[in-house]
Amino acid sequence: MLHLAALLLHCLPLAMGQYDICKSWVTTDDGPSWEFYACQPKAMRMKDYVTVRVDPAGITCGDPPERFCTHENPYLCSDECDASNPDLAHPPKLMFDSEDEGLATYWQSVTWRRYPEPLLANITLSWNKSIELTDDIVITFEYGRPTIMMLEKSLDNGRTWHPYQYYADDCMEAFSMPARRVRDLSTTSANRVLCTEEYSRWAGSKKEKTVRFEVRDRFAIFAGPDLKNMDNLYTRLESAKGLKDFFTVTDLRMRLLRPALGGTYVQRENLYKYFYAVSNIEVTGRCKCNLHANLCTFKEGSLQCECEHNTTGQDCGKCKKNFRSRSWRAGSYLPLPNGSPNACAAPGSAYGNCECYGHSNRCSYIDFLNVVTCVSCKHNTRGQHCQHCRLGFYRNSSAELDDENVCIECNCNQIGSMHDRCNETGYCECKEGATGPKCDDCLPNYYWRQGCFPNVCDDELLLCQNGGTCYQNQRCICPVGFKGVLCQQSRCEADKKDCDGAPSAHGSLSTVLLGVLALHLRGWVDL
Ligand SMILES: *[C@@H]1O[C@H](CO)[C@@H](O)[C@H](O)[C@H]1NC(C)=O
Ligand SMILES: *[C@@H]1O[C@H](CO)[C@@H](O)[C@H](O)[C@H]1NC(C)=O
Ligand SMILES: *[C@@H]1O[C@H](CO)[C@@H](O)[C@H](O)[C@H]1NC(C)=O
Ligand SMILES: *[C@@H]1O[C@H](CO)[C@@H](O)[C@H](O)[C@H]1NC(C)=O
Ligand SMILES: *[C@@H]1O[C@H](CO)[C@@H](O)[C@H](O)[C@H]1NC(C)=O
Ligand SMILES: [Ca+2]
């Protein structure tokens, strides 16, 4: 079987499908060897791998059992939802089953019996895996599409959410946004989040059932109407910032904000015809494997890329152990048509095990020490294996040795610290009076003035004399007639006679204090 696979790989023309294979066994002048290509898994029906959650609790109909009507037949309310009867229940899983012979199975909400309180429901789809959308998201509503809804997405397994598209029969009224159509977007606005009125207007509940998130129309901006020019799309996906991420999701959420009304007004006397019913949610996409895998399998409840190119991780987002002689990189669609694998590499064979943790891709042999050492370590690392942090940096304890963020700058305050080095937890060594991890604070009784200086005066330690008052612990404000740092000296200009007399009783103390102060004040008195 393996032989056959190898043979097939060898024989299959590359043109069969773009980026379909990760490697092939080729014969060159130097003999046969593997050649590597950028590769990606096939697109799949992602609804088969999804976990769904519907909020709030109690929004699914049937507990207690409830009757409902339809817009077509508002006074013949014979339909019943009963969660305890499998034939009459409408649980969330019916949005993802395969429909037999046209008989729609659907999730259904409770009716709008609490009107005018809004009827709100969230349907959250989670994959626990990054997915790249390759076709439209299509949501099918039985009994009418919502008049207001919103699509949100997450890229980090539901930790943060972002608007993806707004839907309303009146965008201005519902979201204060002008109505736009995806078809009217241009190459520079292909990843714009917009509000559309195309899927919310009443057209009879049987006729128009679908709400779309138009992936194809956005692709067509680059690839042309029939998506014939995929090369152009792939080129743009590599070069336009944020474009790839725009089509990438780990989770999707439909926020249903107002049901179909079947007319302009809500008929209060018959609220049993207002509810949501979703029969299908189609999401077509491929696992995001960073162009390092062409297979994605469902294992232990989650999708996982089968990584090639000596990469590993759920998305092939890092290099395998012992293949870290250069930093990990995603594969690239460019140059066309086969792209670049950007494979992780084992340390060069010439230098047995020169491990640089991905911070250098060069090793050198130092003759007189008889060691092989990494050259030009990047990411602020140093050492034979780039395993230490440069001076002025410290080890990031939450990062692996091969992480680009492994070394964090000490950032010692230049004035407050002795030097720009810090200890293993990022603490700098402070000069006298300074404190704090970066030495940018002062100890009590010191104040900051381009460094920490002791207080000149305060209410406890050093009092201003002769009725002077302490100003911001920095200087004494002296009463008329006195001067000096502590107001210890009387002014004599007014009455020369006094100056000829003996110094005041406090003279000797003042002199001592002045001496102490002079030491501390040198730094700022003349500033
Ligand atoms: C739906 O989700 C949004 C966040 O995406 C949240 O603010 C809102 O309260 C949720 N609504 C319901 C009905 O759970
Ligand atoms: C998500 O996927 C990861 C990696 O496959 C797995 O370790 C984790 O248990 C999964 N989490 C959930 C909630 O399924
Ligand atoms: C990955 O490592 C294996 C050895 O385990 C090697 O044979 C193969 O060529 C490597 N692949 C790439 C793409 O470097
Ligand atoms: C430490 O490393 C982690 C993991 O890479 C990173 O998320 C974090 O930002 C790093 N911390 C700093 C301060 O750079
Ligand atoms: C770093 O210095 C701080 C403050 O002096 C100290 O609390 C901490 O224990 C030191 N860390 C190490 C690893 O020495
Ligand atoms: Ca169904």
UniProtKB/TrEMBL annotation:
Membrane topology: Lipid-anchor; GPI-anchor
Disulfide bonds: C410-C422, C430-C439, C478-C487
PROSITE patterns: EGF_1 (PS00022), EGF_2 (PS01186), EGF_3 (PS50026), EGF_LAM_1 (PS01248), EGF_LAM_2 (PS50027), LAMININ_NTER (PS51117)
First and last residue of the signal peptide: 1-17
Keyword Membrane set for record: yes
Signal found in the keyword field: yes
Superkingdom, natural source: Eukaryota
All residue ranges annotated as the EGF-like domain in the record: 453-488
A Pfam family that the UniProt record links to this protein: Laminin_N
Chief location: membrane
One CC-aspect GO term: plasma membrane
Keywords per UniProt: Cell membrane, Developmental protein, Differentiation, Disulfide bond, EGF-like domain, Glycoprotein, GPI-anchor, Laminin EGF-like domain, Lipoprotein, Membrane, Neurogenesis, Repeat, Signal
Domain Laminin N-terminal: 35-286
Domain Laminin EGF-like per the UniProt entry, residue ranges: 410-454
Matches recorded under SMART domains: EGF_Lam, LamNT
GO biological process: animal organ morphogenesis; axonogenesis; tissue development
Subcellular location: Cell membrane
Record's function text: Involved in controlling patterning and neuronal circuit formation at the laminar, cellular, subcellular and synaptic levels. Promotes neurite outgrowth of both axons and dendrites.
Record note on quaternary structure: Interacts with LRRC4.
Protein name in UniProt: Netrin-G2
Organism: Columba livia (Rock dove)
Lineage of the species this protein comes from: Eukaryota, Metazoa, Chordata, Craniata, Vertebrata
